[in-house]
Amino acid sequence: MFRILIADRCTVVEKEDVDLSPILSLGEATVCDLLTPAELRARAESADALICNKAVVDRALIEACPRLKYVGLFATGYNNVDLAAADERGVTVCNVPGYSTHSVAQQVFAFLLAWATSLPAYDRTVHSGEWCRSAAFTYLTQPMTEIRGKTLGVFGYGAIGRTVAKLGDAFGMRILVHTRTAPKDCPYELVGREELFRRSDVLTLHCPLNEGTRDLVNRGTLSLMKPTALLINTSRGGVVVEEDLRDALERGVIAGAGIDVVREEPMREDNPLLGAPHCLFTPHTAWATIEARRRLVTMVAENLAAFQEGRPVHVVNHPR
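The structure assignment produced for this chain is given below.
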């Protein structure tokens, strides 16, 4: 019997809103929520396949699991897996690209529109009774602006970056794109990194975390931005120097930030951005609409089935 361990269930399923049966049907499955490293090792020792989200699959774990042949990720990113160790032990590692493209793009515009309309602030004033006490039918205590005609800077032009650019175009925004390799089919203006920071009214990040993007947003790059600009990060927390962003928000170097990811997750109580002015947060949920999570489970099951049939897809390593 092919044995499957599903870890990190609670990061994908909330109150049974997502059905795991497409994966469960592919073998003798054990389902767990978050596990300590010791618990994960004990549960995975007899598994042929490990399905997880952010659980750390390091060399020690891989070497402790003699039956392990496959690691499937509830994610696109795979920096939690030691690919070199997987290669050496002949373990195939597969991710799920593209499942959350529209969800993340939607979240970018949730941040953008909340900033443009001051919606969270107005909501707080109404609940506090300010509208009930108003002599006029309306009051204009919070700034609002149209996004039409504003410049949207898109850092990274993968599937999400392209979708965000297209949405911004539909809103009548001017689109600037910075990407490592110039695409052949980009209908928007391509600019260098510094020019993107200087010209953007809204700068949204859609890049992987690597040595070229780590600490991308720092005191120097923030100083290039307009004092009226909004920064949105739905990519990886490590691309932002959080102390520098807090300082920029406090000093009015930029107008605001929409943040879905931080360097250490869950967020630590001493995170520099916690309590920062004009900083709107979501807890790494940009990817997690119900549609995206159901799509994710389907694709994870399809990846595992393809592996079992000897035709693996979405392989991110080179197993021996």
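Interim note for the steering committee: Residues 3-99+290-308 form a domain with the Rossmann fold fold (CATH 3.40.50.720). The chain has twelve helices and twelve strands.
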